[in-house]
Structure formats: C-alpha cells, structure tokens
Amino acid sequence: MRLGISAYHVDITRVRRACNGHEQALAKTLQTTFATRIADLNEAFGPLIDGGPSVDTALTSLIGAEALDDGYGFVYAYALELIVDHFGTFLPNDAWYPSDPDFIMHIDGLLRSANVGLSVDALLFSGAPVPIPEPDGLPGVGHLTEARVTSLWHQLRGRTVEDVGERAMGALSQLRDWIAGAAEQRTGLALFYY
Hints:
194 residues
C-alpha cells in the first residue's frame, strides 16, 4: 500500500464551528458537493463499515455534534476531511506522496538536527481539530492551529539544510511552504495520512 499526506490550509475555528450542531444544512451541501467521493469511500469501506456509519452518515453526525460510534474512527476521519476540504485549500503534496513511515522518520531526524520543534510523525497522529473517535491505525489525522503555525514559522524562517538528497529536500521545502503559506494567510493546517 502506498501511503501519502494530504495537507490543507484551513481555518481551524471554522471547522470547529461547522461541527457544533448548528449547521445542519451544511451536511446536505457537502453530501451533494462530494457525492462521488462519498460513494467511492462507502464502496471502499463497505466490508469494514458493516454495522457502522457510512461516510455520509458520519458527516451528518459530525456536523450535528451527535454521539459518534467509537469503533469507526476511520470513517469519521474521512468525513472530517470532506469538511476540511470544503472550507480549506488542498495543498501540493507531490513531495509527500508516497511517504512511508521510514521516510517520515528520516525527515523527522533532519528536523531535529536543524533544531526545529516539529515531528511530522507526531503531527500526523496528533488528532483531529474536532472530537472524533481515534482511528485504529489509518488514516492519521493531525492539525496545527494558527498560533502553532506562527510559532513554527518563526522557527523555520532562515533555517536551511544541505546535502540531504533531492527527495528529502523536496519534502522539507514543501512542508516549509505549507507552514509559510498558513502563516501568511493566518490560518491553520490540517493533515491526513493514508
């Protein structure tokens, strides 16, 4: 299986507000906007969802601030990505796709050696910006608030790494661009790893 990172600039506060139970019309809008994607996810997860919520049901439950089924964190994570996609901007991720755990650990080592207080691995599994049951494995879900983005950008500005190889340099540059763009736009960053 090829794993990769999907990254979004998004207003984390707006995502949280969307899941507060007061925007039920949003669920219908997203079910229409992402109908094909939802159908594809439901088909792919059919055997795993057996008895649990479909992606469209999970989306409605998230937006409605309803009780969530603990055994299906992965379904809620994919439903959350639809909300993030709706309010956010999908970012170029070619340097991170594919990115297996060994590659991510390599990047984390480079960040440590540059004294940057960020672990990509920890970020990818840091949790959703809204309460969802933790997925058992994948997808990984993580986010940075606007304040954390600003702090990281101050650490990253002016830092350089050399002789790390073309692929690692591409991933570090893209990560830097994600954080710089979020800082410039005064927004957060949401990441999904699958």
